[in-house]
Amino acid sequence: MAYPSIALPRERDSVLMEIFHAHDLGREVVQSLNRCRVSLESIFLSDITTADGKYLEDAVFHPGGRGRSSSFRFPWEVPTRADWDRWFGFWHSYTATGNKLHVPLGRWHNPTHRIWKWFYREDTDELLRLEDSSIFHYKPATGLRFTRTTRMYTMFHETHSFQGKTRGSPISVAGLSLNQVTKWSTAPPLAPTAAGQTDFWSFLHEYGGTWMWEEIDPGKDTPDGVQWIADGLRNGSLIWATDRSYDRKKAADLCGVGWIIFCTSTSFRITWHILGRLLVSELVQS
Q: Which of 71, 99, 127 is the last residue of a domain?
């Protein structure tokens, strides 16, 4: 039976099993390492390497609680303590001081199956952590900077995750608590997926004005896609309402605006709203 091959995601990347076999470790040791690899849902070296491609991730040596890490389905594995000891020992011997790779990985030139949970947005200087249907926002902690590229960030806000939302550049972080983490160097841009796989929201973001889609919130049981909107347009079952609020006497520099799309046939809906000061002049003039 023929299976499609998966291209190496990054320059100078390697398949983990090929790394193990190249070291002439013996069948039993390789089987131990493979159980740990499957437990971490990893195929390539880039799956366990920091965003900048220079170091192994902390999860390699502290695997508990990593959660789902791949868009692929891996079989269930529960490595023994002996398996993990072999795994830790192998990677300590494979890397230099500080778990640094002897040859760093380069740019991304193929899509990766790895699920990145942390992103950095340079335009707003904030970290984003993606968890299920939520995005947790982190701002720089006042006065806590270690080097030019590392800095402490504190969680301050949570929003709903919506397909196609602008995320920024993949990044690796460290920290004992999810409330405050240290930002490390960012990754080169991820390789784009095939053009035919681009979803509607990603396509929309290419036109700029991404602030208009930051707070989109689908209703309960509403699909992530937009096929129901297209169907509603054809069937005439959509209601789209918009409104804004502005009172010059009470707050001359503050306003709000929002809209909702509702399908009378399926009860699917999405809503959007924004409240702020930066857009007042634009909204009043519109």
A: 99
pLDDT at 279 over 50: no
Instruction: Name which residue leads in pLDDT, 177 or 55.
Output: 55
Place of tokens 């030139």: 109
Distance between CA atoms of 36 and 6, rounded to whole angstroms? 21
Average confidence (pLDDT) over 215-244 = 82
Beta bridge partners of 138: 127, 155
Task: Count structural domains, the chain.
Answer: 3
User: Which range has the worst mean pLDDT, 72-81, 122-131, 210-219, 250-259?
Assistant: 210-219
**Alpha carbons 5 and 33: distance in angstroms, whole number:** 22
β-bridge partners, 137: 128, 157
In a domain, 127, yes or no: yes
- What is the distance between the alpha carbons of residues 236 and 240, in angstroms, rounded to a whole number? 11
Domain that holds residue 239: 215-285
Instruction: Give CA–CA dist 53/190, Å, rounded.
Output: 12
